[in-house]
Model the fold of this input.
Amino acid sequence: MSIIIEEFTDMGRTTFVIVPERLKGMRIESGLTQQMLMSRAYKILGRSPAATSKTLIGHYQRIEKNGHTSKALADALAKVLETTVEVLQGKDTPEPYHYIDKLVKQLKVQLDLGNNQALNNEFSEWQRRYNSQCLDVSEDIHSFARELGIQIELAQLIGQADELVKLREITGWSNEQILNPANVHGHWFIRKIVMDSMNTSLEYGLGEIMWEVRDVINKVGHFYTDDMHVSIKHAYPWIHIDLLHPRINDFHKTSFIFSRTLPKPDGLKWVLPSEADKRMLCELERIAFDEANFVTLNDRVLYPSDVRNLRLKIVEITDHTKNGVAYSEGWLTDQEDAAFNSFLASGKSHYWVVNRLTGALAEGLRTHLHQLPEVSWKVDTFNRTIHLTCDTWKMSTEQRRRLGSFNLNYIITLVELMPDGSYRSAPWAKKCIDETVKSFKHQLQWAWMSDVSSYDDEKIKLHFEEITKLEETVSDSTLFI
Done:
């Protein structure tokens, strides 16, 4: 990746630096001559756009040669090219929609001219293949352009001359234009170490990397115990992911490091992710929260910061009109340090805490459920939550009447109690949730059958507070509440 110096002083004048290759590539992609681009930039700055051709071209060529200009002129050039100064500096990768929009404009021009037989044939075949019956041909062109953009991006990496010639004929672009970087999904270099075994690869798009990360954590996570820690760090252009054993510092290494790359004639160049890439990279946080019980994100904060501050959040839903929320601290206040430390040493502190929470929850729910038949209840999982659902059709008419509603559901999530009394969402590995559900079912059955009641135990009583906006409370699809 090019190293950019924002500003520096040269003979008493402060100048601004952009990447000459990026400027030239975007000018050619926009179909502008040197004189046209500079004339429009002059007009934005309030300078005379009627300057002589020699003056305009000479000024522009100096910028395109060494990248030195003023901040004001760099802004004007970016506006003419419909981009940002950051992109001209090489700091940001152009957004996919910029490239696709320019490709769409080019294809529309070629189709309107009607003399590009290669494009006409390819577009007709695309419509036939997808059996397109869209009334708005613009939608077809946009979808076709996106697929064509992917072909161009892949061809730029492989560099097959015949493929590039074919794509140049379809688009009507020059050889230089077809080689200007296509930013659709991007090529990503990844180094993966799994249990000390390393390999490297080049992947097309982030989707494959996301799948690999989740797959590896699933396959090797059990070696790291329930208290496995996943760390994610963005140090652009590189993204780092590490799996950490809770007790053994030099345990078999499992990690990922990857960066977006740009194919160049002299090799691959590391580039910063685009804004679209960054939005997709947020999925790494969800993967970590889904697959591990301890997570450090890019803010370098550990979730949960103290496993003993975990609590269960219970949302009660009745007919989607009257809803309540309660938090349970279970029997954690009765915990014995020796018992906790024993599980901590074996890498199962999270299991021990959650088991104490769900055991007390089963008992706490009995006061709300004891009038309903056990057969009417179903327990399952969805999106890092436990759902306790009452099937009222398995109840008698009289039982439904006493219930007073046709729906009664409980949504249970794991949260962390913060020092200020607020709660934030906590990671909860899917495999651990599945194990918890099995245990919770047995605990509920025991609570229903047992004659011993803990109704008077204030620690496990559930005090539901009425809520009016369910979507604000059942927010477990996001990382934080």
Residues 377 and 390 are 5 Å apart (CA to CA). The radius of gyration is 30 Å. DSSP finds 18 helices and 18 strands in the chain. Residues 1-14, 470-481 have pLDDT under 50 and may be disordered.
